[in-house]
Each structure stands twice: as structure tokens, then as C-alpha cells.
Design brief:
Layout (H helix, E strand, L loop, with lengths): L2 E5 L2 E3 L5 E8 L6 E8 L6 E6 L5 E3 L7 E6 L4 E6 L8 E9 L5 E3 L3 E5 L2
Parallel strand pairs: 2-11
Antiparallel strand pairs: 1-3, 3-8, 4-5, 4-9, 5-6, 7-8, 9-10, 9-11
Amino acid sequence: QVQVVESGGGLVQPGESLTLSCVASGTIFRSKNMGWYRQANGKQRTMVATITTGGTTSYVDSVKGRFTISRDNVKNTAYLQMTNLKPEDTAVYYCQLQNIYDRREYWGQGTQVTVAS
């Protein structure tokens, strides 16, 4: 059974940093593309950043230059380093794994990030 668990969220002030972690178990991590998504109150879930099995990354324009996605295939973990956080980054952040062979998706339960002064 695949399990995806996010951690690292919290309350920070504008301009501060946070690093989110996503640990996957029960699956071959290196065969999964990884993604971080977020959902603010009353809004749809949207993509923040993705990283392929080969390490290619992509970001939504609003976080380019501030967020960095990475993965450690030995630790079965993906990270989202967030710097210079802004109030508009406030959301529940979700980790997604996608099997590169059958495109099946696995999601975590989410971790809350709140940016407020």
C-alpha cells in the first residue's frame, strides 16, 4: 500500500522560509514523478512545482526564484524549499506521486502553510 506523508508546514511571517518534506512508502520511489500542489481556502488545487524521475523541474510562475523542488531517491523523499514567503502562498500543500508507467497518482493528506504578520 502506497503511503504519502507531508510535513514541515507551519505559521511564518512574510519573508521567512520553510521546507516541506514528502516521504513515500510502499512504492518504488524512483519510478515516480513528484509534484507539490497547493489549495487555498475556496480555491482549486493548483500545481506549484514538479520534478521528474530524471530531475527535470518546473514551477508555476508565481514561485519561480523563491521555491526549489528536489528529491532524494535513497530516502524516498521529496522536498519543497520555500523562501521569501508571501501571504498569497498561504494554502494547504499536497505532495503527489505519479507512476511514469501507468500514470496512477498518489496523494498525501496535506500540510498547512500560513504566511501572516
